[in-house]
Amino acid sequence: MSLDTTEKQQLINTHQTHGTDTGSAEVQVAMLSERINRLSRHLQNNIHDFSSRQGLLKMIGRRKRLLSYMRSKSEQRYADTIAKLGIRG
User: Fold this and answer.
1) 5-85 topology per CATH
2) N or C end of the chain: smaller count of CB under 10 Å?
3) How far apart are CA 80 and CA 4, in angstroms?
4) What's the rounded Cα separation, in Å, for the pair 21 and 15?
5) Span 23-37, average pLDDT
6) Per-residue pLDDT tens for 19-28?
7) pLDDT category, 1, cuts 50, 70, 90?
8) Half-sphere exposure (Cβ direction) of 1: Cα atoms closer than 13 Å
9) What is the pTM of this model?
């Protein structure tokens, strides 16, 4: 369920706002979204894995808080991130 270094670096390069950006809200949301997608696929096959389900809900909450923060700071960055990741319909 975790991301290896090449996948993580690829996500960072795709979503970074400047050359040395590794921890902006956009990058964090992108990494959380990828982990959420992987864990969701895992839970479809392993229905009774309740501890992973709890971790999934925590990640969803963290992503929701980050998106709320982004929306309060810059509506345009929020909209761009949502569109790029394809979340929230």
Assistant:
1) Helix Hairpins (1.10.287)
2) C
3) 25
4) 9
5) 95
6) 899 899 999 9
7) low
8) 16
9) 0.90
